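The instructor's notes for this session suggest beginning with a concrete chain rather than abstract definitions. Hand out the sequence below and ask the class to guess, before any prediction is shown, which regions might be ordered.
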Amino acid sequence: MTEELFREGSGLLSCEATVLAVDEQGIVLDRTVFYPLGGGQAGDAGELVASDGRRVSIVDTRKHKARAGAIAHVPAPGLPVALQAGDRVRAILDAPRRQAHMRFHTATHLLCALVPHPVDGCSITAAHARLDFHTQEPLDKAALNEGLAHLVAAAHPVRHRWISEAELDANPGLVRSMSVQPPRGLGRVRVIEIEGVDLQPCGGTHVANTLEIGAVLVTRIEKKSAMTRRVVLGFAEERVGGAQFAE
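After discussion, reveal the predicted structure:
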């Protein structure tokens, strides 16, 4: 198994680790700060640097399909992987990519607090984030942007904690997602609390305070079906910098 350091510290950007295996799915380490694709959030990227200077660029991170509890660090295609089992490496994240994931993921939790409907789909990348809400009611972009700006500026602390599966069963309303359920079988479930705003199960990475989200905008709202409204988020600084967002 791979020790998941990112569960306890989203801001940890590197760690020392040992290569356990190298196979067709990627490089497995005994511990990592790299978050694997899951829960709607994209996998991390970065590089692995061996003690003798060998470097392997990592373009994605996934849960290993054949090794229970293992995480595969996916190397850049077409290049030889100059690592083998037993090598000591430093795993170093692409920090701007991780920071974007943390900002967007926390912003989606704020969006959940503003839109009181179940979520039936989500995607969090470094370029944008989206949530699909199960509702037929129209959503007001200007009102959502005003609400997001207020919650970000209010500087609410963001923290994680663990609750028992029994506690979750006693509070089913904590689960907002219709499409992704919290993992079972470990006896405990990780929850993210935005003080005074939102509390729900989540395994992703987040900022420590809503102020760190910065200026985030609802760039568009789409009617995907009779009962689905899609809300897409972008960063205001990218909009000013020339990124094109559909209205």
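Then share the key points. Residues 98-240 form a domain with the Threonyl-tRNA Synthetase; Chain A, domain 2 fold (CATH 3.30.980.10). Confidence is low (pLDDT under 50) at residues 240-247.
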